[in-house]
């Protein structure tokens, strides 16, 4: 499997499971999200919506990146764009007024990497991986189709 395809598929797998793990399954993190008693039902609704959206986008990107057939470059670029969506939206959400990567009561349990909230760090890393895989995909020459005889589908003599 070519490295760009492998990287995009890896981001697809991570995207598929990460939000559900972080917001619902891992106890310390889930306490800050789906099981946060301070969150009103509507906030929990949007968290559930985000988890399901991320699973669906991850599965779609994974399927696009692994599917064989015509136009592999186009499918890989589409997969990278689909998979970048939840990660870029996480970074972009920080631009809205009143948003934060964690609630103050969880500051002691919040995980930071190089001074950046763990989820945002993951979003930046995976976005950079997708950018690198996209650049490599764009630099890879497109195979030239073999000419065929009109109407027969058989390879033309060269």
Please describe what this structure looks like:
The protein has about 160 residues and is an all-alpha fold. It has five helices and two strands, in the order ααααββα. A two-stranded antiparallel sheet has the order 1-2. A hairpin with a 2-residue loop joins strand 1 and strand 2. The longest helix is centred in the middle third of the chain and has 26 residues. The relative contact order is 0.15. The model has no long low-confidence stretch (mean pLDDT about 90).
Topology summary:
Layout: H1 3-25, H2 27-30, H3 41-66, H4 72-93, E1 112-113, E2 116-117, H5 118-139
Helix pairs in contact: 1-3, 1-4, 1-5, 3-4, 4-5
Give the averaged pLDDT, no decimals. Answer: 90
Strand order of the largest sheet: 1-2
Helix content: 55-70%
What separation lies between the terminal Cα atoms? Answer: 30 Å
Structure summary, number of beta strands: 2
Largest sheet: 2 strands, antiparallel
Unreliable spans are none
Question: What is the C-alpha radius of gyration, as a whole number of Å?
Answer: 20 Å
H/E series: HHHHEEH
Form type: elongated
By helix and strand content, what is the structural category?
A: mainly alpha
What is the count of DSSP helices, taking H or I runs of 4+ residues?
5
- Strand % is under 5%
For the structure shown, list the relevant keywords.
158 residues; mainly alpha; elongated
Concise overview:
With 158 residues, the protein is an all-alpha fold.
